[in-house]
Amino acid sequence: MTDAPFDVEEFLRQPLVARVATGKRIVRPVWFLWEDEAFWIFSGQWSRLADRLRSDSAFELVVDTCDIDTGRVLQVIARGHGSVVEFDVERARRKLVRYLGPDESRWDDRFKPPQGGAAKGVWWAKLIPHTLWISDQSFKPSIGGS
Does a structural domain hold residue 47? Predict the structure, then answer.
């Protein structure tokens, strides 16, 4: 990532939505955490992501932005293999702060990380990319823009 056309670490720290594809082209939008050179995604009993990764660990994931007004278009496309790992509450907090802000008391109850026994039905999908495509497709807007 040292030759990337933009700061990839900074880009992936933003609260962006990624799309992850597993198995037979099943694509889902996800919130993610980029940490330890892996994408971390909540999974649990409500999702079949864990089953899909256990059956076929291959994944592709896309994080991109497109600002029509400024013409800024950035992309990170990852391909690799995933696994299902034990839930870590502190990692969950780091992820959720990015999307919901630092005041946990204001978070919607659906997004509060489960604690203790409640965490038994929740796990992490850890997606380790073996390939990252990093692209700046920015353009000069033809109408408006800055």
Answer: yes
pTM of the full structure: 0.83
**Residue 97 forms part of a structural domain:** yes
Q: Is residue 23 part of a domain?
A: yes
In a domain, 2, yes or no: no
Structure tokens at 139: 């353009």
Q: For residues 110 and 81, give the distance between their C-alpha atoms in angstroms, rounded to a whole number.
A: 28
Provide the residue-wise pLDDT of the chain in tens; the chain has 146 residues.
Answer: 678 888 899 989 988 888 888 877 788 899 999 999 999 998 888 888 888 898 999 999 999 998 888 999 999 999 999 999 998 889 999 999 999 999 989 998 888 777 665 567 788 999 999 999 999 999 998 876 55
Find how far residue 6's CA is from the centre of its chain: 18
- Residue 37 is part of a domain; what is its CATH number? 2.30.110.10
- Of 14, 48, 51, which Cα lies nearest the Cα of 33? 14
Q: Could you give the count of Cα atoms lying within 13 Å of 67 in the half-sphere of its Cβ?
A: 11
Domain total in the chain: 1
